[in-house]
Specification:
183 residues, Riboflavin_Biosynth_HTPR (chains A, B), alpha/beta, Dihydrofolate Reductase, subunit A, Bacterial bifunctional deaminase-reductase C-terminal domain-containing protein (chains A, B), 33% strand, RibDG_C (chains A, B), homodimer, eight-stranded mixed sheet
């Protein structure tokens, strides 16, 4: 069964955004091999708001080649949007009910891993239903003291199993976990 | 000049305690070499509440030898308590005014490094005044979703410089930072 992978950038004190949505601290270094991660997935799960914001985003033509290549890779994936409402969309499939059943069905299909893109509400739903297989959390070298919390307000403790770490030249440390609790 | 070192255990999502003060998730593995850290310091800075709670704590005689040895080492250090009130105390020196001046004076004295023990309010004061040289943050493999925040509510962004990482068999990852901003 292919894995559902969450990939998030956080500050050392556990914020994914500043109090006004600031993400200017977020580093994308050339040694981070985000392209390798993208290459390991063929499907992306979005919440509806995140899909509308980023699902069909195209960087300016003048952007650097790495960024252009990354977005091109993103847009080559199968996109699935979890939403309360049906929508016809040329670039994505919408799922409006039976989230768990549909996720398990997609997960059991042949293919590469699945990137759980976000946003926060969708991630919370996936955590609560124990649907995330791999957590890739990139801890950035700063503290904000306030902002949007990494996992929101969990209803119970989330135990994790460390499976690897990577240190990047910028001082970002990626911590990779699997779920510790099996259903 | 000797260094002021903060050593804290946190969850992946940046909590040092659960909402009811829970620290039962905190792991002290035998590969963590806390004794080596203790050996690198000869002075401990406490806030008054932390000192009263832990400054003269003695574990039960039936505790394991490692714990007994750690506490013995703690109690061999010079202890300095930052408090709003003077107190005569056989085991500690009380500082009630001019925190920054006194800290710099102690720091300029000959000796090993200084452990900034806590609590939260004292740590906040040290962060705000840019007095911490080394941050040793042990990220534990779990998320709580709520609790007491790692650094409290900072007044400004705290930039850090990663200087090392250590991974322990329990899945704890220690991230070691120095201040990125010089005064």
């Amino acid at each position: 069964m292919r894995k559902i992978v969450l990939d998030l950038a956080t500050t050392l004190d556990g914020f994914i955004e500043g109090p006004n949505g600031e993400v200017d601290w977020c580093i994308m270094d050339d040694d981070m091999s985000f392209d390798e991660f993208l290459d390991s997935v063929d499907t992306i799960f979005y919440g509806r708001v995140s899909y509308d914001a980023w699902g069909n985003f195209h960087p300016d033509a003048g952007s650097n080649l790495t960024e252009l290549a990354l977005w091109k890779a993103v847009h080559s994936k199968r996109k699935i949007v979890f939403s309360s409402r049906e929508r016809e969309d040329a670039n994505a499939e919408f799922i409006t009910a039976d989230l768990i059943t549909n996720v398990k069905k997609i997960q059991s299909q042949e293919g590469k891993d699945i990137w759980l893109y976000g946003g926060a509400k969708l991630i919370e739903t996936f955590i609560k239903n124990n649907l995330i297989d791999t957590y890739r959390i990139s801890v950035h070298p700063l503290a904000l003291g306030k902002g949007k919390a990494l996992f929101g307000d969990l209803t119970k403790v989330l135990p994790l199993k460390l499976v690897g770490t990577k240190t990047f030249k910028s001082g970002v440390v990626q911590l990779i976990y699997e779920r510790a609790a099996k259903e």
